[in-house]
Amino acid sequence: MDLISANVAAVPESMTLAVTAQAAAMKKRGEEVYSFGAGEPDFDTPAHIVQAAMQALSEGKTRYTASAGILELRESIAAKLLIDNDLQYEPSQISVNCGAKHSCYNAILATVNPGDEVIIPAPYWTSYPEMVRLVGGVPVIVETKKENGWKMTPSEFEDAMSPLTKMIIINSPGNPTGAVYSKDELAAIGEIAAAEEIVILSDEIYEKLVYDGHQHVSIASISKEIADVTITVNGFSKAYAMTGWRLGYTAAPRDIAKAIDVLQSHTTSNVVTFAQYGALAALQGDQQIVADMRDEFDVRRQYMLSRLSGIRHVNVVEPKGAFYFLVDIEPMGIKSVNFCEKLLSKQKVAAVPGQAFGADYTIRFSYATGLDVINEGMNRFEEFCAQH
Ligand code: PMP
Ligand code: GLU
User: Fold this and answer.
1) CA 17 to CA 359: how far, in whole Å?
2) pTM of the entire structure?
């Protein structure tokens, strides 16, 4: 008898985390590694956020809270969604979860039945198809085109639809492509989904990281009909450099919010109580820190773009958001896993194979790392490409 369930046995480990762990292990052994693996801000969590969590801890805020999170935090999230995103949610429609990864999983588990199809534009964040498989759903991958800035068109969406389609996942700004959908593009997709009663999972975790004057638009803000089928996911990891705190949230129509609440009450219960007070401080404190970190990412983005554009045999689409470059390595004729293994062993440069994102002719560099690492890493990448 198999001890592991079929659903779990079918799922590989997360390659983004595996590459990062491998680079960290090499560093620990004393090897010099230029790591462009996980998308994790290299900044420390701002001091006032840390202070608020410490204070909560010292005040004895160490007990269970409401499963969906403390009311003050859900009120603050509702206020943030209204001001920043033009979204109207009551605190009861918000659930605070253990990272946006958990928010996505809760959203999928709460809505997708075994056998239901979930449309995922590729290149996609590595965990979406696996989450869908974990609940017995069927990922339907839509290959987007580089010429379209890696964005799914409404007709590609319609072509992928079937009577079994339950959900579509939109991730703008996107990981790993950096694609940012415009309001019109979102409206076109949203109107189709609303008409067909397809749930939209809108993962907006990179909302604050947009460049060159591009605007982030929340798809649920476009119309009531779209909001009625949308689960908005966001969190604290990327905007506030709080990856290890494990804080994300869903905002959803009432029935879905209730289902997520029930689900969470039987699985994780509330997010760490004193961490929730840190999140509250993040939302209520000075937002300049978010803009400052974004500006720093933009400096790195522009530098890295100038370096990558100068390297022969590879191509890039300028990312408009998030903190990744998806590099097209097709002209080099090596598939991504093999390519990344060689790049790491020969040049000590860690990148994530595009296979993890459903794009095996690409590799992903995260630029959430210092300029000195980017500079030397790019020197080494250039050398590698010249030798192959
Ligand atoms: N969505 C996307 C697109 C991501 O890249 C990540 C990466 N961490 C997450 C969700 C999850 O973020 P969190 O750390 O809040 O779980
Ligand atoms: N989301 C980040 C990434 O894509 C962090 C790792 C993960 O959670 O997958 O690298």
Assistant:
1) 18
2) 0.96
Residues 273 and 307 in one domain: no
**Could you give the CA distance from residue 12 to residue 129 in angstroms, rounded to a whole number?**
11
104 CA closest ligand 1 atom index: 10
Q: How many domains are contained in the chain?
A: 2
Judged by its nearest atom, the ligand closest to the C-alpha of residue 322 is 1
* 23-53 residue pLDDT tens: 889 989 999 999 999 889 999 999 999 999 9
Report the residue among 17, 103, 238 best suited for mutation to probe ligand 2: largest number of ligand atoms under 8 A from its CB: 17
| Same-domain pairing of 293 and 235 | no
Residue 54 has pLDDT above 80, yes or no: yes
Instruction: Indicate whether residue 248 lines ligand 1 (CB < 6 A).
Output: yes
Q: What is the pLDDT of residues 260-308, one digit of tens each?
A: 999 999 999 999 999 999 999 999 999 999 999 999 999 999 999 999 9
CATH number at residue 166: 3.40.640.10
Chain centre distance of CA 188: 22
